[in-house]
Amino acid sequence: MTVALVVSGIAPYDRATWLMETFWVVIGVPVAVVVWRRFPLTRLLCVLLALHALILIFGGHYTYARVPLGDWIQDGLGLARNPYDRIGHFTQGFVPAILLREVLVRRSPLAGSRWLAPLTVCGCLAFSAFFEMIEWWAALIGGEGADDFLATQGDVWDTQWDMFLALVGATSALLLLSRVHDRLLAGFPRPAPDGAADPPRS
C-alpha cells in the first residue's frame, strides 16, 4: 500500500486532486500504527482498509472520472459515465461500517444490542454527508479547478447518489460480514458493565 501511494504520487493527472484523495491514507496509516498496541484491528478490517486505500490511491492518481478500471466497466456495460466514483462511494459506506462496528463492539456497551446496526449505518451516513460538505467547500474554493475532485461528470444528482451508495455500502457490509466479524472479535476484550475492559478471551 505504501509503495502504491508513492508510485501514485509520481506525475498524477492533477496534483491537488491527488493530495485531497490520498489525504485519508496519509493520515490513516500513521494513526493505525500509533494505536495498534492498544487497539489492534481484526484481519478483516485490515484487509478492507487496505482495499479502500488502494481505491483512494488510484482515484487520486488518475482522478475518479479517468481511472482505467472505470473506463473498462463503462465500455463493457455500455454506461453513460465512468462508474469508478460510484464504486468509491459504495466503499465509503462498506469499509467504515466495519470500522465503526469494530470500535462500538469493543469500546461501548452496544455489543449484541439491536442499536448496533442502525447506529453504525447512521455513523456512515454522517461521514458521507461530511465528505460531501468537503467537496462543496472544495468547489467554493477551487471553482472549476475542483471538477476533478468532485467527479460529478455532469450529473446534477451526484451528491445524492454518493450518499445513497454509502448507505447501500454500509447496509451491505453489515448484512454480509457481521457474523464473520463477530467471530473475529471474539478474541478481543469487551467493555465490562462498570466501564473497565474485560480480559482477552482465550
Q: Would you write up a description of this structure?
A:
- The protein has 202 residues and is mostly helical.
- The protein has helices at residues 2-8, 15-35, 43-62, 68-77, 84-107, 116-142, 147-150, 158-185.
- Helix 6 packs antiparallel against helix 8.
Task: Give a nutshell description of this structure.
The protein is mostly helical. The protein has helices at residues 2-8, 15-35, 43-62, 68-77, 84-107, 116-142, 147-150, 158-185.
Radius of gyration: 18 Å
Sketch the major β-sheet.
Answer: none
- Beta content: under 5%
Q: Shape, please?
A: globular
Helix content: 55-70%
Structural class: mainly alpha
State the order of secondary-structure elements, H for helix, E for strand.
HHHHHHHH
Low-confidence stretches: none
Distance, first to last CA = 32 Å
Number of strands: 0
Overall pLDDT level: 84
Number of helical segments with 4 or more residues: 8
